Recover the amino acids of this structure.
């Protein structure tokens, strides 16, 4: 069986800072002083959730991708 690398759509649910929670339909502008934030995301209806792996990078700030499980 061939290994097909499919990339399902990642859905961002929210972005949280120390002061606020933002949702995808909101415009987000963070001050430079906000160096910590949390992004909540998911991949719905994936047939093998145990095989889902995520990587991220901050485009324009870094070139390397980081594993996030």
């Amino acid at each position: 069986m061939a290994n097909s690398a499919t990339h399902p759509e990642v859905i961002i649910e929210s972005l949280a800072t120390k002061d606020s929670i933002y949702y995808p339909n909101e415009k987000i502008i963070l001050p430079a002083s906000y160096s910590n934030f949390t992004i909540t995301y998911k991949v719905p209806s994936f047939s093998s959730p145990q095989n889902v792996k995520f990587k991220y990078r901050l485009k324009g700030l870094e070139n390397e991708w980081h594993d996030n499980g």
